[in-house]
Amino acid sequence: MKTEYKIIQSPYTIELSLEVEKMLNAGWTLVGGLSAQDGFFYQAIVRKAFTGAVKLVDAGPNKLAIVKLVKDFTGFDLKEAKDLVDGAPAIIEGRTVGNLTRPFTEEEEREFRSQLLEAGANIE
User: Fold this and answer.
1) Which domain holds residue 13?
2) Pseudo-torsion of CA 28, 30, 34, 37, nearest 10°?
3) Tens digits of per-residue pLDDT, 38-93?
4) What's the CA gap between 32 and 106, in Å, rounded?
5) Which end of the chain lies in a sparser environment, N or C, as judged by fewer CB atoms within 10 Å?
6) Residues 65, 46: one domain?
7) Is 112 found in the same domain as 70?
């Protein structure tokens, strides 16, 4: 999992609050803050973690294509892929090799999402 941190600074609390609110709405998490009242300096630390997981809400009208995509991207056999799609909503976290699951890279996750959407799946 890749984690990114940003430090947001402002001499004004309202400005800092608005900026932190934007970051929270974009999926970031507030992990810390600091205030230096004498110098009127305020700071917040936010974090965003990339998990690589894709939530399949439903397969949409082209279920067979979605099963094939899930099979290709996860390394599941046909029955496992079909069961996962039939059991949606489901979180798909990565590629399975043997008993191990390797999380998707950012590129794999983007490609998987793109192809699922093209095939008509409903994802989050």
Assistant:
1) 2-50
2) 90
3) 555 677 777 766 667 899 999 999 999 999 999 999 999 999 999 999 999 999 98
4) 26
5) N
6) no
7) yes
